[in-house]
């Protein structure tokens, strides 16, 4: 039986919030941000340096160029969207080390980080 401690430890092992991502990038950790939304949403606004890999089209061919030695951070719009969860599941099934960005792009913006459409704290991917 899964204990509460096991549940929360597992949750933290597979999720990151915006501050976690920011700190990891500042520390030089190798993260690759994956925007799992539709291409149109990605074109409108995303996190700088993120790659557009829509969850609907994720398969071996569409992910072949992604590094297996980086942590992939899947994200979508926010809590009203589950594209990041669908993307994280597909990427994990394809053998990638994956985390999901809690709150997605919405909470990234709320925490004051830059996007391709808004000013904020600058971020650079260590990919």
Quick tags:
single chain, 127 residues, alpha/beta, five-stranded parallel sheet, 5 strands, 35% helix
Structural class: alpha/beta
Radius of gyration: 14 Å
Which parts are unreliable, with pLDDT below 50 for 5 consecutive residues or more? Answer: none
Shape: globular
In the CATH scheme, what's the topology name? Oxidized Rhodanese, domain 1
Fraction of residues in β-strands: 5-15%
Helix content: 25-40%
Task: Going across the biggest sheet, name each strand in turn.
Answer: 1-5-4-2-3
Main CATH class: Alpha Beta
Write down the domain tally: 1
Q: In DSSP terms, counting alpha (H) and pi (I) runs of 4 or more, how many helices?
A: 5
What is the number of E strands?
5
Q: Terminal Cα separation, in Å?
A: 38 Å
Describe what is shown at a glance.
The protein has helices at 4-14, 18-26, 39-44, 83-93, 104-110; strands at 15-16, 31-35, 51-52, 71-75, 97-101. With 127 residues, it is an alpha/beta fold.
Overall description:
This protein is an alpha/beta fold and 127 residues long. The protein has one domain: Rhodanese-like domain (Oxidized Rhodanese, domain 1, 3-Layer(aba) Sandwich). Helices cover 35% and strands 15% of the residues. The chain is built from 5 helices and 5 strands; from the N terminus they run αβαβαββαβα. It has helices spanning 4-14, 18-26, 39-44, 83-93, 104-110; strands at 15-16, 31-35, 51-52, 71-75, 97-101. It has a 5-stranded parallel β-sheet with strand order 1-5-4-2-3. β2 (31-35), α3 (39-44) and β3 form a beta-alpha-beta unit. The protein is globular and about 45 Å long. The protein starts with a helix and ends in a 17-residue tail after the last helix. The mean pLDDT is 93.
């Amino acid at each position: 039986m899964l204990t509460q401690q096991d549940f929360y430890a597992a949750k933290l092992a597979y999720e990151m919030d915006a501050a976690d991502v920011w700190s990891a990038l500042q520390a030089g950790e190798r993260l690759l941000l994956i925007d799992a939304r539709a291409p149109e949403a990605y074109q409108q606004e995303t996190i700088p340096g993120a790659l557009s890999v829509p969850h609907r089209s994720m398969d071996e061919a569409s992910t072949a160029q992604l590094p297996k030695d980086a942590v992939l951070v899947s994200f979508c719009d926010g809590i009203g969207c589950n594209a990041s969860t669908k993307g994280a599941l597909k990427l994990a099934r394809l053998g990638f080390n994956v985390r999901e960005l809690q709150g997605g792009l919405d909470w990234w913006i709320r925490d004051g980080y830059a996007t391709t459409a808004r000013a904020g704290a600058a971020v650079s991917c260590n990919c």
